[in-house]
Each structure stands twice: as C-alpha cells, then as structure tokens.
Amino acid sequence: MRSTQKQELKLGFVALTDSAPLIVAKEYGFFEEQGLDVTLQKQNSWATLRDKLHAGVLDAAQMLAPMPLASGLGLGCRPCEVIAPFVLSLNGNAITISEGLYQEILAVSGLSELPLPLSAKLLLPVIAQRKEAGLSKLKFADVFPYSCHHYQLLDWLSDGGVELDDVDLLTVPPVNMVDFLESGEIDAFCVGGPWNAKAVRSEIGLTALTSFDIWENQPEKVLGVTKKFASDNPDLVRSLCTALAQACSYLEKTPNRFEAARLMSRANYLDAPIEVIAPSLIGSCLTHRFLPPRVVPSYNQFSDAAVDINKPTREQGIWLVNKMLKANQITDREAAYAVVDKVFTDSYL
Q1: 288, 200 in Cβ contact below 8 A?
Q2: Whole-angstrom Cα distance, residue 285 to residue 150?
Q3: The CATH number of domain 7-91+218-271+297-343, selected from 3.40.50.300, 3.40.50.1010, 3.20.20.80, 3.40.190.10
Q4: What is the reported pLDDT for 291?
Q5: What is 10-52 written as a DSSP string?
Q6: Coil/strand/helix, residue 191
Q7: Whole-structure pTM over 0.85, yes or no?
C-alpha cells in the first residue's frame, strides 16, 4: 500500500512548449497519483537549471538531451554524474530568421519567395555580398553550447556549405530570443516553441525550417536527475517516470494538446498566449505573416502508441556524442561512449 504522505520534489523547467509533460503531470494530478508533491520551478537559462540540479537545489529537471552527457564529461562545468531515465520529447525546435535577413535573401537571390524548408545555401550570396561591402557577419543564436539546437544549427549551415568562420554564433536564453531578434542583436535563432511562433505573430521573422526537417525524430528533452539522487531514491525516480509517462500518453491526442496549451499559457509557466503555444502542438509550423503555415505533424512528439519513444537508449546517446565530436567539443570518443552507458538508462521504467 502506498504511503499517504507525499514525497516533496522540486522539478526545474524552462518556459518552452515541450515542457508540456511536466505541466500536464502537475495540473492533472499524475504526480499526485504517484504520491509525489511536485513543485515546478521555472528557470531562465539552461546553465542556471544545470547548476541548480548539480548543487541539489533542484531534485530533478527537464534537460536538453545532450546536457547529462556534458555534465558527466565536465563540459562547461565541474563533472557531475547525471542520468536520463526518461525521454520527454522528440523534435520541437525551429530556425527563425529576422524579417531583415528574409528581405536581404530575397533581394540578393532575385527570388520573389523563399522555398521552405529553407536551405542554408541561400545564405551564401548574402554572406559574399556582406564581405565585399565590409559589413558585419550574420549572427546566429542558439540556447546552450551542449544542445540539440546548437548541433542542428551547425548541421544546417554545414549542409548549405556555410563556413563557420563566416558567421558569428551566440548563446541566448530561450525567453530572450524574440527580443534579441527584434532589436537586431541577432539575425536568426534556433530555439524551441513557442518562441518561433511568437516571432512570426510579432511580424519580425520567418520560420525557415523545423528540427524535424534537419533531424527526424531525435530526442530533444529528457528528465535529468543526479546519479546520487537516483541511487538514494530509486522508487521515487520510478514514480516520477510513471507520472511523466501518463502525461506523455495524454499528450498523444491532439484535442488534449490544446487543453495543455491553455494551461501552459499561465504566468507561472510559459506566460505566453495560446496563439503562440498551440500551433506546434497541433502540427502547424507558422512561417510568416504573409505565408501559410506548414504542416509538420511531429513538430512536437511526446508519445507514440506504436513505438516506446520515452525509453532512453544507448543509440540515442551515441548519436548525440557523435554530434558533440563533430562540433569539436570533445576529442576522446571512447571516454564519451563510456559516459553514454551511465547516462541513458531505462532501469527506472
């Protein structure tokens, strides 16, 4: 018989559409059904969330899929063993360019409209013209050095033949992306929802492509807990995973996703209107104020009745390590692969 005394947990998250499983589990009582008294604590940046998890200020957290690997390898921080016992979501990101860059591409290329999803090849004439005129490099932002956003942006640029020396890459917290784009501090960003949709609704950008267009159905967010916390509280971690699995299953149905968007719009969660939260949840990629949305059914993927996408696998970890190697963030392949076996574990499901 389960104890009637609930176990208190502080769970960190960042204001993003793919925080939906955490918010649904809280608001619909899935955590409570598992005997958990969860407090969701919103964090402004991924670095802050990571540091609080490492220090034990947070018991668990929504994390970027590569973050537990980076923690274990001591990338950007002191080494800390973090495990990922549950995959919260696949896909979910997009690259949005500023209205100014959109118009610049059209003018330089002589096109009347851009083909979507957009190839980075169309940046090449813009880069060449800027070089010739002695203008500043294009500035692209992502959310964290050890993130799928960073690797997706690198892959997109590389596939288009863009040299990294010809652009500047910055790190900007997700909630600040739209302001940076509007102010002209950056020319484009790769971020999760709802911030791409907000840029389009604000008439300041064009969403060029989604992460599904770059990598199809790869892990985006995971549940992260320190190895010590999991070792000390194995049943609690299992209960946490069970509640989140219920929430992900709930989110498989499109009508439920609109209800989730309503919950997430609250000030203590995303603090954004439903009109920017709901589109990606229902498979609609807003593109531009004068263009129709693109249909991207798996824009946000939380569950799949046919395949257990919430189960972490070694293959997922190897995929991410290979992206980190390609980005020259690590050099010791074997050491990194050894960390994968410690991080991506399904022993709590």
Answers
A1: yes
A2: 20
A3: 3.40.190.10
A4: 97
A5: EEEEESSGGGHHHHHHHHTTHHHHTTEEEEEEEES-HHHHHHH
A6: strand
A7: yes
